[in-house]
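Why should sequence recovery work at all? Because a backbone constrains its sequence more than one might expect. Tight turns favour small or flexible residues, buried strands favour hydrophobic ones, and helices have their own preferences. The token representation captures these environments compactly. In the example below, the structure is given first.
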């Protein structure tokens, strides 16, 4: 390598370093991207009945729009993280952003249900990769001590979007036309991606290449495997109910469209608090805390079933389920990141992508089970079925805690021998 060329590259990188104002703008846009990704993923939940009518399919089939998205997201996010490790980050981000916007166009103007499914699969294929690459810019935009805080804000924006777009979609579909909420989601995707491409740095410290082998070794860690399984049953338990929450609120609880929208907005506030509590839970108890929270979640989901058409009791139980929904996130992320930092340092990008990947596997699993419950005419029993899965998640959390503890003790004993 030519030393002069290396020196020029370093000088150019320094000269192109973003200013403080540009860094703040990039952070704001990454947060907006998180919100946009959440809107694109969850926009179909608030307009399920309208989509079923527009495409002439049964309500249970509309759940496939969530399931197929989640499967594509879960499978391709880690695959793309592993296979594109040798490529520069910015061109990948641009490519994913273009596909993300194109898939939103396909969703908005789909003439048939099959094309809508295809657009959802394409959306799921790139959403996790786009978010994962966006998050890698954060260490270059803020001080090291603020990195976890900013990452949590980006993910919080994603989770807030989940409920904002479902409730807004219900209101817009009821008062005007469901196509309008799809158009708004498309516009948000285009604006956020275009602004990010314009402002984000073209090069950076996290452009260091990593081989497939260096990253894939992380997936063989027992704690990582069981941590991912926690998401499948823990998130899936809630989505047996939440995947069909709008018809549940209307058909079982007996709320009208405005009442259902109000409950969804309140549910969103609970999810935001749940994100904050997840960080506190991890800092105080680590993965062990989930061995208590999941049995509590199971009781809350059973309470939704027991409440039935009793509006005050049902709404209270559903909101408390929302408060428990994201408690799983940070403790499991910590397990993934700790395993990567200690034994697989070049797999940090893959480790950061495991949370949304595993989360979406849980969404696909829970929504598929929920679709089977709805198809069997047992929508009122969704909470009871979900509660059973929460108990499984609690058992998996206990196994993960024991594995993590045993690995830490083994590492300490090895250090003493040295």
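From this structural description, the recovered sequence reads:
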């Amino acid at each position: 390598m030519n030393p002069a060329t290396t020196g020029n590259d370093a000088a150019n990188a320094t000269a192109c370093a973003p200013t403080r104002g540009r860094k703040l703008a990039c952070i704001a846009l990454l947060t907006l991207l998180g919100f946009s990704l959440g809107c694109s993923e969850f926009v179909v939940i608030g307009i399920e009945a309208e989509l079923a009518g527009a495409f002439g399919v049964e309500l249970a089939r509309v759940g496939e729009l969530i399931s197929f998205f989640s499967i594509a997201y879960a499978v391709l996010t880690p695959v793309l993280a592993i296979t594109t490790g040798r490529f520069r980050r910015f061109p990948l981000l641009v490519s994913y952003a273009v596909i993300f916007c194109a898939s939103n166009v396909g969703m908005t103007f789909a003439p048939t249900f099959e094309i809508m499914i295809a657009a959802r699969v394409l959306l799921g294929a790139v959403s996790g990769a786009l978010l994962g690459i966006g998050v890698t810019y954060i260490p270059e935009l803020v001080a090291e001590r603020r990195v976890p805080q900013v990452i949590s804000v980006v993910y919080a924006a994603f989770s807030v979007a989940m409920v904002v777009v479902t409730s807004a979609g219900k209101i817009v579909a009821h008062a005007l036309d469901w196509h309008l909420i799809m158009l708004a989601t498309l516009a948000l995707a285009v604006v956020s991606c275009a602004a990010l491409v314009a402002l984000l740095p073209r090069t950076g410290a996290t452009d260091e290449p990593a081989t497939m082998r260096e990253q894939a070794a992380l997936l063989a860690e027992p704690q990582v495997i069981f941590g991912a399984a926690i998401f499948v049953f823990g998130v899936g338990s809630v989505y047996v109910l939440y995947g069909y929450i709008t018809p549940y609120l209307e058909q079982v609880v007996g709320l009208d469209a405005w009442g259902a929208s109000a409950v969804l907005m309140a549910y969103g506030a609970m999810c935001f608090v749940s994100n904050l509590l997840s960080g506190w839970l991890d800092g105080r108890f680590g993965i062990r805390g989930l061995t208590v929270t999941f049995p509590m979640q199971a009781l809350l989901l059973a309470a939704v079933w027991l409440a039935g058409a009793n509006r005050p009791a049902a709404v209270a139980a559903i909101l408390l389920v929302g408060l428990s929904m994201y408690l799983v996130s940070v403790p499991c992320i910590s397990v993934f990141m700790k395993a990567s930092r200690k034994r697989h340092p070049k797999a940090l990008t893959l480790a950061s992508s495991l949370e949304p990947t595993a989360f979406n596997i849980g969404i696909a699993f829970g929504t598929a089970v929920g679709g089977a419950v709805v198809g069997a005419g047992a929508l009122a029993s969704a909470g009871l079925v979900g509660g059973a899965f929460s108990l499984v998640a609690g058992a998996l959390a206990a196994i993960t805690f024991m594995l993590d503890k045993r690995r830490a003790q083994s590492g300490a004993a090895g250090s003493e021998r040295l």
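A few observations help interpret the result. Confidence is low (pLDDT under 50) at residues 1-15.
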